[in-house]
Amino acid sequence: MQTEFGTVPDRCPICMEKDIKRNVNHDIERYSVACPVCGEYHIDRSPYLYGLDRPETKERAHELSGLIRERCEEARRATQGSSSRIRKRYRDMILHIKSLDPDKIDELLSGVPKTAKEKADRLLQALARNSKHPGAPVRIDPETDYPWAYTEGSRELKVYYLEHLLHRDLISKDGGQYVITVKGWERIEKLAESRAGSRIAFVAMSFDKKDPRLKGLYEEAISKGIKSAGYKPLLVSLEHHNEKICDRIVADIRKSRFLVADFTRHRQNVYFEAGFAMGLGMQVIWLCHKKDIAPRKVHFDTRQYNHIVWEEDKLAELQQRLKERIWATIGVGPIKPPTDS
Ligand SMILES: [Zn+2]
Questions:
Q1: What is the DSSP letter of 291?
Q2: CA of 96 to the centre of ligand 1 (A)
Q3: Separation CA 82–CA 172 (nearest Å)
Q4: CA of 211 to the centre of ligand 1 (A)
Q5: Ligand 1 centroid vs 35 CA: distance in angstroms?
Q6: Phi, psi at residue 159, to the nearest 5°?
Q7: Which tens digit of pLDDT belongs to each residue from 81-133?
Q8: Which residues does 10 contact at the CB level (< 8 Å), separation at least 6?
Q9: All structural domains of the chain
Q10: Could you tell me if 216 and 273 are in contact, meaning their C-beta atoms sit under 8 angstroms apart?
Q11: In the predicted model, what is the mean pLDDT of the chain?
């Protein structure tokens, strides 16, 4: 389709579905797509042109469909009852595909399920999301709902994942629809308690009271940023950091969904906690004060990561950027944010 801003594809640029609605006129930089498979999202023109035509990106298109669909449904649930302005802001933030460069797509898709077991769990969670109440049947159209199990198409969903959940008595069949069994709801509860469903964000940072730059960093920026993204910050108090890294910290990291690490002052405990979290396969969000990120200052192992660089007189900006980074890499948290953040 030719527009005054150039050509945009007639199909969903991610899953190639034909039956889509597009809104191409409101913005030069991006356009929006309502796709029955992927859901509603915005996409910059550049990733279509420079990302999705790469074979290594195309190979992961079904994972991208699964991620967008999941975020769409989560956003709908998270903003239920909120004003249309807040709903729109949520959507703009978490459903805007900005870049599909190979390194960006790795970051974006780092949390998608890989194993058959993980995919089956995600399908069960999707059924729960779309179930009006326990016991209510859910209609599945495999042709459009296959992203619920992050599969490449409808057949894998039908003949493998739905059969698998039926076989484990996690769902039952009700005519052409499916109902989550009591055993299924128990499994969903268990998943919510585990790390994948955790609402906790572990914070690793320096506690040096003599450094004036750190004053207000936690209260004004990190804690507020995490809360407004829908998660609960967990800061282990100073005394625990004076001991050897204790079991308590290890246990707290284990039960967290992700970790926010500030490398200002280069404390050893921050490197340890971030490294430990990465070893568990957790996502880490990297922060550092502008002066401490100077070349050669940040430990060589972390310089490759994309730090959010901050300054002490711009804590409100840091809060906003932290929230956006959390939404972009981890997704909207389960805790309803304050109404106007
Ligand atoms: Zn699509």
A1: G
A2: 14
A3: 34
A4: 50
A5: 5
A6: -85, -15
A7: 767 776 776 677 668 787 777 767 776 787 788 899 999 999 999 999 899 88
A8: 1, 18
A9: 2-108 (no CATH), 116-193 (1.10.10.10), 197-329 (3.40.50.450)
A10: no
A11: 83
Q: Which residues are paired to 41 by β-bridges?
A: 33
Distances (CA, A) of 24 to 3, 37, 42, 149: 8, 19, 10, 30
Q: Two tokens at 167?
A: 């076989």
What is the C-alpha separation between 140 and 143, in angstroms, rounded?
9
Distance 111 CA to ligand 1 centre (A): 19
Separation of 17 CA from ligand 1 center, angstroms?
5
Q: What is the mean pLDDT of residues 304-321?
A: 90
Distance 317 CA to ligand 1 centre (A): 34
Question: Ligand 1 center to residue 48 CA distance, Å?
Answer: 13
Question: Residue 26: its pLDDT value, please?
Answer: 64
Quote the pLDDT of residue 340: 47
Q: Ligand 1 centre from 319 Cα, in Å?
A: 32
**What pTM, to 2 d.p., does this model score?**
0.65
Residue 18 alpha carbon to ligand 1 centre in Å: 9
Sign of torsion over alpha carbons 18, 24, 27, 32: negative
